Amino acid sequence: MLLRQLKYFAAVVERGSFTEAAADCYISQSAVSQQIKALENELGVRLLERRNRGFSLTPAGELFYGRGKKLLREAEELCRDTVAASLGGARRLRVGYLKCFGGDELRLAVAEFSEKYPETSIETIGGSHEELYDLLRFGGADVAMSDQRRAFSDEYVNFHLSYCFCCAEFSGRSELASHAEYVDAEALSKIPCILVASKEQRDNEADFYQNTLGIGSSFIFAESIDEGRMTAAGNAGFLLVEYGERRPARDASLLRLPIYSGGSPLRRNYCAFWRKSAEKPESAEFAEILYEIFKSR
């Protein structure tokens, strides 16, 4: 049994809805359903009594939910305490960021922060949207630069940074090379989309970009932007990346154009997030630096 499955189960019970629980956990409804079914299969008991328009907890489900919530709280405390013990008296800021972000704003912010606060070491951690959410929740990161995928939570500071552009990077030999200033999302439907995602997050990321943003019908996955660019340079598909600016880019191996949908550029709301209950002064300072860099672009 995974803690993540327990988290999904608790969210379903508390929200009374698979759909709302999926939104809270930043994954698809089908993924929540699959994980809870896998949990029931592993335990060998039914936790939920499903009906046409809802569900109810079985006696086993009530027991599992009550003790599971306690276990989740203890896991969060364990993660935070372990990280705090490892730091001792040292000052450190751990910054999470989306792996699919291709701009240099984050790098510039890290450099500026390090110059301004040389006594504080800074660590960067890449991940998907959900992986960054878990890092914040369980104390693995102090602040995360990520996109907004649902309503803001009151448990976090939601510091707006910029509206970043979804872009396609592709080989000069691609059929997309005939586009001058932008490429429409419909033109991408017949070309494999290269997504940067870990093995555990592939289904979630594909579901979000295909069903929420309307990009891609088939997918190739890469562990990093560099790996994705190598794949795109080989004309195997287009790499989906996000930038703080939409300026077209052309070099010897790759072209980059912003993606349009419905006649307008497709943009994502990027924010710096950090937990209010674990707030560090450095988190707000880093977010301010990052905001000013985005603003100047």
Structure commentary:
It is a single chain. With 297 residues, the protein is α/β, with parallel strands linked by helices. The chain has nine helices and 14 strands. It folds into three domains: 3-85, Winged helix-like DNA-binding domain superfamily/Winged helix DNA-binding domain (Arc Repressor Mutant, subunit A, Orthogonal Bundle), CATH 1.10.10; 89-162 and 270-296, D-Maltodextrin-Binding Protein, domain 2 (3-Layer(aba) Sandwich), CATH 3.40.190.10; 163-267, Periplasmic binding protein-like II (D-Maltodextrin-Binding Protein, domain 2). Strands 3, 4, 5, 6, 7, 8, 9, 10, 11, 12, 13 and 14 form a twelve-stranded mixed sheet that branches. Helix 1 crosses helix 2 (18-25), helix 1 crosses helix 3 and helix 2 crosses helix 3 (29-43). The longest helix is centred in the first third of the chain and has 29 residues, at 59-87. The radius of gyration is 21 Å and the shape is globular. The N and C termini lie far apart (46 Å). The model has no long low-confidence stretch (mean pLDDT 89).
